[in-house]
Design a protein that fits this description.
By secondary structure, this protein is of the alpha/beta class. It has 15 helices and eleven strands. It has a domain of 223 residues: Alpha-Beta Complex (Amidase signature (AS) enzymes). Helix content is 38%, strand content 13%. It has an eleven-stranded mixed β-sheet with strand order 1-3-2-4-6-5-10-11-9-7-8, sandwiched between helices.
């Protein structure tokens, strides 16, 4: 058995029962990567020695009859914004092209402690800034469903690898939709936990108050298994929450009959593609047939979400990316004669166009005379957006929306129009701003066979409910 289409449970069971080995699964996935990734571009770095060592450890456990941990022998990929000890970590940027971290991201360490075998690092938009994975400093990622289209961003490599069976599971990061939107475009499951549910220690920062780590998987159950593995308080991250982690898998099969699901009119307005609208409305009808009560809700400040997000995110990016100055671990321009020239040239040559654009926007928003008018006002609107959700969740258990207004667009289609690119995140940024959890699951496809995503949003730290709702739909559909 060398299949690359297994779920977590199937892969672990096969290794535990000696129907295959972790080494055989690893080799099958590397063969798949060699065959498919030349045209997709999902991986930036492979870590074969590390993977072989872990696979050998798992196989020895299985041979001795020891019970395997939850991810025992499961091949996984890690978005290249999460540091990995001894393995190149670039954040998709030339400024970190040669960076070899001396430690592991907490989420990665927890995955490996649970038996996961890390295949390598996934391509992404530079510093996770993008909605199409065309901003990688190395090469774009192509959508496995249609190689002429984008996989979504910024976790495009993570989504594409799962969709193309090059990894069972991948980890991505979500700052404005970067897990859920690629999941929608590639036809896989993408889960963004509540802010603070998963440690950000070792995640290369884009916007610290918005960044989340979460899984991209083939099924909702797999997402629940991974979240159970990586969630929980971490003393290395002061923003990680000391909140009990439920048994997400154990709660998946609880009935959804009687749950109240909110539908917000603000997510079904101008700009929503007709095929996407029809697929999402059909999914809502499916929930009705499962016994859920559909309740209209209003999120009135939604129209302000994009400008609010692109003020807060860029301001925090401006601050976070100041550390890449050519002095320590980042790229240093050759032949410089003064300190100011080193700063200027290193950053100019090391950063790509989109990163420079966001640094400049953020620096302007934080500058003297403009802080109150832009950044402070954006934070106040963020509070209003959060209150919208708090009020809606007084009436409903979860909210269902489209994940993206369209299916995957063509490579290059929006490259020269940053505003059009930013609007691709219009249905996802609200959850990041409010800090609530969200999941995207496939809910159909267009006439061109492109996947369409359904988004389920939940209350703070109530991932159990959105996973249960998503699982019920997945099983019924």
């Amino acid at each position: 058995m060398h299949s690359t289409s297994l779920t977590i449970d199937a892969a672990r069971f096969a290794v535990q029962e000696r129907k295959t080995t972790a080494l055989a699964l690893l080799e099958a996935h590397y063969e798949r990567i060699q065959k498919e990734d030349g045209q997709i571009g999902a991986f930036l770095t492979l870590c074969k020695d590390r993977a072989l060592e872990q696979a050998d450890r798992i196989d020895r456990m299985a041979a001795e009859g020891k019970p395997l941990p939850p991810l025992g022998g499961v091949p996984v990929g890690i978005k290249d914004v999460m540091v990995t000890r001894g393995v190149r970590t670039t954040a998709g940027s030339k400024i970190l092209d040669r960076y070899i971290p001396p430690y592991d991201c907490t989420a990665v360490a927890r995955m490996e402690a649970a038996g996961a075998v890390v295949l390598g690092k996934m391509n992404c938009d530079e510093f996770a800034m993008g909605s199409s994975n065309e901003n990688s400093a190395f090469h774009p990622v192509r959508n496995p469903r249609d190689l002429n289209r984008v996989p979504g961003g910024s976790s495009g490599g993570s989504a594409a690898a799962v969709a193309a069976d090059m990894a069972v599971v991948t980890l991505g990061s979500d700052t404005g939709g970067s897990i859920r939107q690629p999941a929608s475009f590639c036809g896989v499951v993408g889960l963004m936990p509540t802010y603070g549910r998963v440690s950000r220690y070792g995640l290369i920062a884009f916007a610290s108050s918005l960044d989340h780590i979460g899984p991209l998987t083939k099924t909702v159950k797999d997402a629940a298994i991974v979240l159970r593995t990586i969630a929980g308080r971490d003393p290395m991250d002061s923003t990680s929450a000391d909140v009990p982690v439920p048994d997400y898998v154990g709660e998946l099969d609880k009935p959804v009959r009687g749950l109240k699901l909110g539908v917000a009119r603000e997510y079904f307005g101008e700009g929503l593609d007709d095929e996407v609208r029809h697929a999402v409305e059909s999914a809502i009808d499916k929930f009705k047939s499962l016994g859920c009560e559909i309740v209209p809700v209003s999120l009135p400040h939604t129209p302000y979400a994009i400008p609010t997000y692109y003020l807060i995110a860029t301001a925090e990016a401006s601050s976070n990316l100041a550390r890449y100055d050519g002095v320590r671990y980042s790229y240093r321009a050759p032949g410089v004669k003064t300190l100011s020239e080193m700063y200027r040239r290193s950053r100019d040559e090391g950063f790509g166009a989109e990163v420079k654009r966001r640094i400049m926007l953020g620096t302007y928003a934080l500058s003297a005379g403009y802080y109150d008018a832009y950044y402070l006002k954006a934070q106040k609107v963020r509070t209003l957006l959060t209150r919208d959700f708090d009020e809606a969740f007084c009436k409903v258990d979860a909210i269902v929306t489209p994940t993206s207004p369209t299916a995957a667009f063509r490579l290059g289609e929006k490259s020269n129009d940053p505003l059009a690119m930013y609007l691709a995140d219009i249905y996802t940024v609200t959850a990041d701003l409010a800090g609530i959890p969200g999941i995207s699951i496939p809910c159909g496809q267009t006439k061109e066979k492109l996947p369409i995503g359904l988004q389920v949003l939940g209350k703070h730290f109530d991932e159990s409910t959105i996973l249960r709702v998503a699982h019920a739909y997945e099983q019924a559909a």
